[in-house]
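Why does residue order matter? Because the sequence determines the fold. Keep that principle in mind as you read this record.
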Amino acid sequence: MAPLPGPGWGTFLVGLAILAGELRIVARLLDWGEVKLRGPARRARAVWASMPAALRLLIGVMVPVCGAALGLWALVSVLR
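Structure:
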């Protein structure tokens, strides 16, 4: 379910966080991932802040709409 729109990736990440409290190797994996993603996240935040408000609104509306369309397309293709 992770590639589909919805709670798939969120559930996976919450599960990893729960396991990180019990397993050191999972905690190290999450720490490594956080360090690797910190730079790209800063750059993305800077680009987002520099965009006009109208463009941010358009992106904020279109991403969920496209996600819903992808989910419906996947559902229809499975039901065929």
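The longest helix spans residues 24-50.
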